[in-house]
Write a structure and sequence with these properties.
Chain lengths: 236, 236
DNA sequence: CATCTTCAAATCCTATAGGACCGGGCGTGG
DNA sequence: CCACGCCCGGTCCTATAGGATTTGAAGATG
């Protein structure tokens, strides 16, 4: 899994440049990100620098750099001289706070995106909703991973279509966490039918070109997600 | 967001451990952050890893880690194998986008903060406004630095008093940039009197305990800041 | 049995070395 | 005069080495 080894063979690159000289730290970053998203690294477990370096067959330096970037996303936390740990699971309060923040930001995104929507953007959103419908929804994490990806993509696309880099940044500050809230209690996807219908409603509202309708549809979606998740939450 | 600052050397912790031993990378991070905030590093200039390592008399490894963290704040940008550069200056469009985002987030923060305001919080806010009034307002950056710091502190305190970690994160995604927009055209502080009055109005609205009043006052403040800045903007 | 000491392994953190690439100055040939 | 190649310093990137610190457990002691 670790090509790009510096120990090149006798001859240099054959013709043309090597596709794109890659930075090892980027690979480590994506590898760790995938491990976190897939749930292979459970919340609370330590992420040893030397350990992952050995596991990925690289030196600790790129691992250190990758973890420094991950820390700012909230996926891992760092204690001064003790190393990195996967951020703890969401509590019910965390979830409520997340939904409060989404309710403040995402309707605004929908309103702004609606004003400058292009047919190309609309097609991308339709594809995301279609992927949402087609995605498998099994009980294991690997199975509903595609579902979560399409869900996140839908919301991220709307954020990007605002054309406002700061709204994208604000959404991104939440986005990384949005994936993880599903681990909250380990409940799977039980509300797919409702969620798909709401996404479709948001899409339709955007297509009408009325910003207020779009914002209202998004607000309703977020509120309903919150309501269902609270209902499904495991009893403490 | 510069808590966890490794204190100099206050020894003799009664029963606790010595304050987290200083990690060199943290020191480099704060040093770079200060240089960026003070304008000693102008936008567009390259930030050499080896160079700053020599300048700060450390090895490149901590510098690399500090820059990896800074990248996620938007203060510096990294090109794959070419190094880091200070993010470019704000254009008029960037500024408009920033204000749009602030207008979406900050009134919500004011509303939420108002609902759970304590006397202690109120005192901190009053201190921030007082500092704003007392701060010098000269033409050079070093002179109105205290003013900017108090301004940012006021808004950050409100974000933190929402008690919602995600609203803090969303604000922080903007906060690092808020400092820099003053460089937009190099205009100094020309609207201090108006701004101070508006901050006072926000504070008064918070003190009444009416969340809607607080949100409205904050929205008015942000809108007026936008209006004044556009009026002051240098002609292209 | 409980508690403290001590030691060894693991880990974090920093420094240093070396490979690969880029850009500029300089000399030689046309 | 201009073009081309070469050298060289600078930089990024990764690997490796070694000091500093925490942790966990074995062993000693009351």
């Amino acid at each position: 899994m670790q090509f790009a080894s510096t120990g090149s063979h006798s001859e240099g690159r054959p013709a043309g440049r090597a596709v794109s000289r890659q930075v090892l730290a980027d690979h480590v970053y994506e590898e760790l990100l995938a491990s976190l998203m897939d749930g292979r690294l459970e919340p609370g477990t330590a992420v040893s620098i030397d350990g992952t370096a050995r596991e990925l067959d690289v030196s600790p330096t790129p691992v250190r750099e990758a973890l420094a970037r991950l820390e700012h996303t909230g996926m891992v936390r760092r204690v001064a001289l003790k190393g990195y740990r996967v951020a703890p699971v969401f509590t019910r309060e965390d979830f409520a706070e997340l939904m409060e923040a989404r309710l403040a930001i995402e309707p605004v995104n929908a309103r702004l995106a609606c004003a400058r929507l292009t047919p190309g953007h609309l097609a991308e959103l339709e594809r995301a909703v279609a992927d949402l419908k087609d995605a498998p929804r099994g009980p294991s994490f690997a199975e509903f991973r595609g579902y979560l990806e399409a869900d996140e993509r839908f919301h991220r696309l709307i954020a990007e279509q605002t054309g406002n880099q700061f709204m994208v940044a604000a959404y991104a500050a939440l986005g990384g966490q949005i994936q993880r809230f599903r681990l909250f209690g380990g409940v799977g996807i039980t509300d797919a039918d409702h969620a798909i219908a709401e996404h479709q409603a948001v899409l339709d509202a955007l297509a009408t070109g009325d910003p207020e309708k779009a914002a209202a549809a998004m607000a309703e979606h977020v509120q309903k997600v919150r309501g269902r998740a609270i209902a499904d939450a495991p009893a403490e």
